[in-house]
Amino acid sequence: MGLPSHDAINHFHALMQQLDEPLRTTFQNVHQGNVNETLMRFLKARDWDPSKAHKMLLDCLNWRLQNEIDNILSKPIVPADLYRAVRDSQLIGLSGYSREGLPVFAIGVGLSTFDKASVHYYVQSHIQINEYRDRVILPSVSKKHGRPIITCIKVLDMTGLKLSALNQIKLLTIIASIDDLNYPEKTNTYYVVNAPYIFSACWKVVKPLLQERTRRKLQVLPGCGRDELLSIMDYSSLPHFCKKEGSRSSRHLENGSENCYTLDHPFHQQLYNYIKEQARLREAVEPIRQGSFHVDFPEPPDKEVEIAQTIESELHNFENSNGV
Fold first, then answer.
1. If 0-12 CB within 10 Å is exposed, 13-18 middle and 19+ buried, where does residue 42 land?
2. Which of 113, 127, 180, 270 counts the highest number of beta carbons within 10 A?
3. Where in the chain is the domain with CATH 3.40.525.10?
């Protein structure tokens, strides 16, 4: 057990007073004025142990410096057709906000193929969405609601989940490791919807491996989860695959404004225009480098490796038992 939260925060504050440049500047990009809330996120991720949380945060800040994460929002994925291909195969988008003001991100786990670009583009895209959420969206909604809002909600659509998910486990483990080590405790709740039998089979063996704080955040909803999600958000904020019972997620819908995955959706238009504008402002200082923005991939924690291996084993068992 760590120190009580008040003592732990004070201890953590004292450790962070020793921070020098350029770590101090990148830390400002992380906390966005919400220092206490940020320290608490890292403390939660390390069971309220200030020393371990301090090391985690220092590792995060050094990772940001070494990989120029502070500048990633000025590094567009170009040309636009390539970015559209990334969006069509890495299904994620902002569908709206909960009644408490938390951004609602929809993620098409089952139908994401990650097969239209190199792994570096998908990692770049993922980190850009994280940074845009933390440095643009969350400060904006915090100002609107008059209080710090530092987390989001994620709705995970399992429609289309197949054995081919085996091909994606390595990339998904990389992305999960980046989030766990550098964006801890940014998701308030994960809602799983449209879960097929193959998910249920994996969930039974994975659930016991998860930390208690992670299990508490993850809720598997029946069907498309519409009724349950309507208790925390308005209909207009529901992801398109939750709009009506029996609906199914797709990469393209006739109404582009409904499908928050597509580049035509207002969220992705605003994000892409923001990144292009930031690039234009930096162009006078340094030319835009073509190609993907390479980020060092962290070694996944042992627990995540174990979870990935368990999922892979369960999918193979499912494959063999069904004669696929």
1. buried
2. 127
3. 89-262
* Residue with the larger pLDDT of the pair 189 and 249: 189
pLDDT of residue 307: 66
First to last CA, the chain: 47
Angle among Cα 63, 67, 72 to the nearest 5 degrees reads 120
* Residues pairing with 155 in the sheet: 106, 191
> For 67-112, how does the pLDDT look when each residue is reduced to its tens digit (9 = 90+)?
999 999 999 999 999 999 999 999 999 999 999 999 999 999 989 9
Look at strands 103-108 and 92-97 and give their pairing: antiparallel
**How crowded is the C-beta side of 261, counted as CA atoms within 13 Å?**
26
**CATH (residue range 5-66):** 1.10.8
- pLDDT, average across residues 38-56: 96
Residue range(s) occupied by CATH 1.10.8 in the chain: 5-66
What pLDDT is stored for residue 39 in this prediction?
97
**Do the Cβ atoms of 105 and 152 come closer than 8 Å?**
yes
- In order, the DSSP letters of 121-181 are HHHHHHHHHHHHIIIIIHHHHHHHHTS----EEEEEE-TT--GGGGGGHHHHHHHHHHHHH
CA distance 187 to 239: 17
**pTM of the predicted structure, to 2 decimals:** 0.88
For the stretch 141-167, what's the b/e string if a residue is b when 16 or more beta carbons lie within 10 angstroms of its beta carbon? bbeeeeebbbbbbbbbbbbbbeeebee
3-state secondary structure of 112: coil
